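FW: tagging you since you asked about this chain on Friday. Here's the raw sequence from the shared folder, copied in full. Didn't touch anything.
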Amino acid sequence: MDPAALAEFLRRRRSALTPADVGLPEGARRRTPGLRREEVAQLAAMSSDYYTRLEQRRGPQPSEQMLASLARALRLSRDERDYLYRAAGHAAPDRTSVSAYVAPALLRVLDRLDDSAALVLSSLGETLAQNHIATALFGDRVSLTGWERSDVYRWFAHPETERMIYPADDRDRQSRAVVANLRAAYGAMGRRSRAGELVAELTRISPEFAAVWARHEVAKRFEDHKVLIHPEVGEIELDCQALFTEDQGQLLLVLTAAPRSDADEKLRLLSMLGARAFTGGD
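HL: got it, structure written out here
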């Protein structure tokens, strides 16, 4: 680890970004250009104190997961991300494998969706980035680790909590849909891939998954219409659109409501709730 190089790189990248670059409001006039340290820390789901210590050359070696979060928060290119990893004393991630890296261009689209819930997901259902409305709707999924980051894993590993956001009469359909999507990823990536590891783990822990997997249904959902149940605003009827990257490895999932509908008003309320949570407002 090179603490001096890491600290200087973080400061330079932070100062090169504006709030608008990462989907944040400008707020009060800033004394210095760039993002504030606490904004980067919030975007990367880490404490402000920890991030500050990294910039001051006092922090411990960041984990690879922490570096992936910083790369997303600072909108780093692949080359910049690789430099960040090496400055922190880690090998650069394998560019040919499934990774948590999200291209800055995809993040820019996400940042501009301020009236809809939006998430960037891997082909295994891992949440790689989400805007503040998606956080208010689903909770913070980016900070989860291991298989817990995968929607597919949580759906079968924790059905008593993960499925509560869906009406009871729609849960069987959702089970078949998430497994069909995993089957498509498995077919593309192969048995010896992370998709194969996920299938093996779910088969081990969930007889229900094993039964649905045995149906051999294969499908990628590009659009859907669903009802979600939020603990604060109740039922929300949403249209879902999935936009896949060229290599089909990641997708941008956007959830919208019909204009001037009850669901539209609830999304607006969630937007305000999410913004208050992000800024720490009362």
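FW: Strands lie at 117-122, 127-130, 223-230, 234-244, 250-256.
HL: agreed, and Residues 149 and 169 are 25 Å apart (CA to CA).
FW: great, closing this out.
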